[in-house]
Amino acid sequence: YVQILQSVYKTKGDDFLANSLSVINRQVNSLTQLVTDLLDVSKIKSGALLLNTESFDLALLIKETIEEMGHINPEYKISYSGDYAVTPISGDRNRLGQVVVNFLTNAVKYSPERGKIVVSLTSNNTEVTVSVKDSGIGINKQDQEKIFERFYRVEGKNEKTFPGFGIGLFIAATIIQKHKGSIAVKSEPGVGSVFYFTLPKN
């Protein structure tokens, strides 16, 4: 209903109302994502996080995700670099899309200067790799080793600026592990980060 109101009033000239609806919509989305993440953590803990495996076009999934994130964050330039001719892979399309969304959401959150974000897809004979590169605040080596742990938060002066519960990357790591893949990060403080995952070709 908030989105309907946004559509109705976006051309009415009431900037305060339009901005208020935009804030409400973002807050509702944040709350919805939090509830979804907490449910996923509960499923992981109980062993009930299951995969709905199918054959799908990974490049197309990434393209669609970039377009959706671009609409939500028009002030950021999100580009694609890679192979569109990757053989369809076997996996849970929605869950892998969730991982890509998490990577992009973090890239936006930790790139306050509104820099460029690049999503890449590469492949060889045995595996495919998806990476998301940003030019944000970066992560030190000590935190990189723990960033995929449940409820782990990077501590420091930016903690209040970048709120979160430390469960998104934990869920992403679990999803990739269930696909028999690997997940990792390369980062340098003040330069940026590259989050990536690799999946086997079936």
Q: Can you lay out the helices and strands and say which pair or pack?
A:
Elements: H1 2-9, H2 15-46, E1 54-56, H3 58-72, E2 77-82, E3 89-91, H4 93-109, E4 116-123, E5 127-133, H5 141-144, H6 168-178, E6 182-188, E7 192-200
Parallel strand pairs: 2-4
Antiparallel strand pairs: 1-3, 4-5, 5-7, 6-7
Helix pairs in contact: 1-2, 2-6, 3-4, 4-6
Describe the protein in words:
This protein is of the alpha+beta class and 202 residues long. It is 43% helix and 21% strand. The strands form 2 sheets. The protein has a 5-stranded mixed sheet, with helices on one face. The protein has a two-stranded antiparallel ribbon with strand order 1-3. A hairpin with a 3-residue loop joins strand 4 (116-123) and strand 5 (127-133). Helix 1 packs antiparallel against helix 2 and helix 2 crosses helix 6 (168-178). It is globular. The protein starts with a helix and ends with a strand.
Relevant terms:
alpha+beta, 202 residues
Q: Which regions are unreliable across 5 or more consecutive residues at pLDDT < 50?
A: 159-163
Question: Percent of residues in beta strands?
Answer: 15-25%
Give the biggest beta sheet: 5 strands, mixed
Q: Specify the helix fraction band.
A: 40-55%
> How are the strands of the biggest sheet laid out side by side?
2-4-5-7-6
Shape: globular
In short:
The protein has 202 residues and is an alpha+beta fold. The protein has 6 helices and 7 strands. A 5-stranded mixed beta sheet has the order 2-4-5-7-6, with helices on one face. It has a two-stranded antiparallel ribbon with strand order 1-3.
